[in-house]
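Help! Submission page says 'invalid entity' but I think these are all valid:
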Amino acid sequence: MATQQGDSGTDGGSVRRRWEPRIERLKRGWDRYTEHRIGVVGLVILVVFTLWSIIPGVFAPHSTEWIAYIGEPPIESRLTAEQVRSLPHPPAFGDPFFAPLGTNANGNGILSLLIYSAKNAMYIGLAAGLLSSLVGVPLGLISGFYGDTWIDEAIQRFVDIMYGLPFLPFLIVLVAIRGITTTNIIIGIAVTSWLNNCITVRGETLSLKERSYVESAKVAGASDTRIIFRHIMPNVLPISFVFLAQDAAGAVIAQASLAYLGLADFTANSWGIMLENIKSQGYIFDAWWWLLPPGLALMLMAASFYFIGFSMEDVTNPQR
Amino acid sequence: MTRISGKYLAKRIVVSYLTLLVIMSLLFVLLRSMPGSFITSMISSGMTAEQIARIRETWGLNEPLWRQYLNFMINYQTGNFGRSPTYNTQVWDLMIRRMPRTLVLFGSTFIIGFIVGPLVGMYLGWWRGSRKDKSIFSTSLLLYSMPSFWISWLFIWVFNYELDLLPSAYMFTQFPEFQWTAFTVMRDVLYHIALPIMSLTFIGWVGSMLIMRPTMNQVTDEGYVFLARAKGLSERTVMVKHAARNALIPVATGAVVSLAFLIDGSVIVENVFNWPGMGQIIVSSVLNRDFPVAQATFFMLAVLVVVMRLLTDVIYTYLDPRIKFGEGE
Amino acid sequence: MTLLEVNDLSIRYAIDDGSAVHASDRVSFSVDRGETYGLVGESGCGKTTLAKSLVHLLDDNGYIESGNVWFDGTLPQWADENGDAKQSVIDDPDKPVREDGKTDLAALTNKQIRDMRWRDIAIIPQSAMNALNPVYKVGDQIVEAILRHEPQTTKAEAHDRARDLLERVGIEPDRADDYAHQFSGGMKQRAVIAMAMACSPDLLIADEPTTALDVIIQDRILEELEKLQDEFGVSILVISHDISVMAEICDRMAVMYGGKVMESGRTEDIFGETANPYTLGLKNSFPTITSADQDLVSIPGTPPTLRDPDPGCRFRERCPFAIEECHAEHPPMYDVADAESTGRLREATDQRAHGSACYRIDELEQLRTDALNEDTWTEQRIESR
């Protein structure tokens, strides 16, 4: 508004004026976000898991080396045959030991393992989600911006090829090639999961490209890079965040599936490995306290990513 | 009926074929980059160098890699998939036997998922924001977040271990007390496939729902939905005939994405239930470095995806009269 | 003879925070059989809401707060063989049917009104271009409407009628087998008009029938509407912001502002004997071909939001003639002829007569002269009052 521009002159005022609308927008977005109960629930779950990953010691009753009947390391005594037979032990509250979610076949406390494993899932989810967005979004932007040229064609054919490779088996091959470490699992997941981001961002870019403000930027002589990063990307970023959340959820599940197939980094604690152990040691139907918590934790972590992603989609959807 | 021109179809088939060639080449490179060779499992410590050399000779490993690659690509053109060292049989026979089993499991979940998903998505999108929508939507996201092997275990636990209603593994009863007739075979397979299908569809339908819900919600604002109401049509007719019919169009595109999700799911589920299909051997062959089998299974799944993509185009033109593939190219 | 009689109709949109948008506030007007009636006003003044509410087609959060919509026609199951309401229905106190056989549409349930939509009142929506479903043949969409309301018709008959209707609006009958995307913009508009006439309704609501079209096609569409009116004897309720279109086709009209009728009467009276500051301003802001060098003067400010509005005159914030009284209460409709002849304000008793909602229509001459002066409408002047 022309009338508003005349009356403030100080630098502080101009900075405030520049940031105020953004803060205002953020605030409005936050209000819209909190309208979604699942979005809030997702955030709460994620905060809990984050705390578990940063300060597991505060929440866990024992360390991961703790062994029922004996206690924390250093381990000096051995379990009696009778004690071994009682493992995996159902939840116990002080008698003969304290393990609210019972123990596994080795005598480790399930709750402690559960809490100490949050870090691994969180790391894999966020890193793989971020990586696959970093691959998929720029490729989608380029493909869409140069729509119907050879660049677009090439990227799309590449996407076609990747779609032809079944995700999980392909992931197994990739992980097998580079060795089973958490980092390689993350890279493998990222390499195989950027496709949806790329296709969606491309579609969005194709339609954004036709908008009048992009046209006018072109007429004004802006370079391609400037148009892509300055005019199109800010509009595509919101959906990219949505995809980041979904990819993170997918990565958490994929890592667990790999662990089920025996492809996990067994030096790290993870929910997938807890489930792999219950399978390989044959206690699936005998130890519900061991079967349910890791699965529920996986589900809740993936769901919290989905919840956040879909609530954000609604906030960023300009139509509503 | 469809408006796909012959020229377009021919072009698509050529492109699909080239895509398959690239996938195969990629696989050849990747599989051979894995540590360990596929004869490692055949070599025992007591073998002499000569014996090992003979094994290498038999499997064509002494030829240079480019030669092996050429042989591999040429053989695939003629349908010669080679022999499997671990299964000790022609890979082609293995495929012929296993592909239908996977298709039965996979096809039925695909069909069920693509009926249930869009249907639920239609209702949720139509009443988006209602309490029903919110609760069903968040529940379905929870389902979507479950690892498929874990939910399979839960189903086995309840329906097999606790209730003893359904078998938890294999495709047939191992030591049947009944005569094998066409009817009993069918019944036996259905009996065994029930749990795998349940586990897979339990989470598999959500994918298509997630696409249908927002598009359905978008079409509710369209002029033709308003006009359909103004014509005096019942809400049901407006929703199904006018809104949902249009919202289905993007779901067809998303089918390919859901397909990938379902393939992953069935790989896991086949392993959990010991279902003797492709998903089971694709994992074991990679882990055992049985390259002929691994290549063939990857190839068959890639063919499946490529064929599905072609099929999607046909369905697309049927769903949307505005689309004409192949004109104006 | 009156076809539609809207009395004190108030429509609101509920908002999440508990307030309500008063999209239409105690609006009254009536449409005669065979007549073209116009609702004119800026976008957001509630004219479309008003039209949609007649057949309960408001958005989910919209509802009729109070008022009646008396329509000369009734539900199929309440009608005798002539289409008039049965005596037993009129006598039934539970059924919203009046002595003279008119039905109160506002009191019908959604299920009931569905039987009257299209059969009695057809509506050409604002976005007629997007009103055809892209996945069905145009002819089939017309057939759908016919079969919905005349189930005894065979499919073949319905298809013949659809072709005939298309031909009447100047589209080749064979195009019935085409899809909407194969039609041009003007053809889509015609097809929707043909569809609207499918069940020979008594009232046709045309919401901005020409807005999205270029001028030549606009003219043809307007001619088409007039031709159909002669052929079918249908009454047309036109909604537009374009007063030049309205002047051309309407017999009578109402000028709306902020959910209120500001002025109503015969079209000649409204344009010739304008009696409301808002109408004066609106006239100023539209070009006329005949006076090429005329300066366009727009009304300063923006229309009110209508969210729980205060009781004063809706237009007073932008009105150069506002006085103390205007802040207290929105003026009632005064009879213009009466005010001009006697110089005194008397509330209008006849809906048909030229009426204006303004406290100052006793000084009309002065208002009209001032309104022509450009300075009157500058922002400062209004704000400095």
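Support: the input was valid. A stray whitespace character was the problem, and the output above is from the cleaned input. The interface with chain C takes residues 222-224, 226-234, 242, 245-246, 249, 319-322 of chain B (CB under 8 Å).
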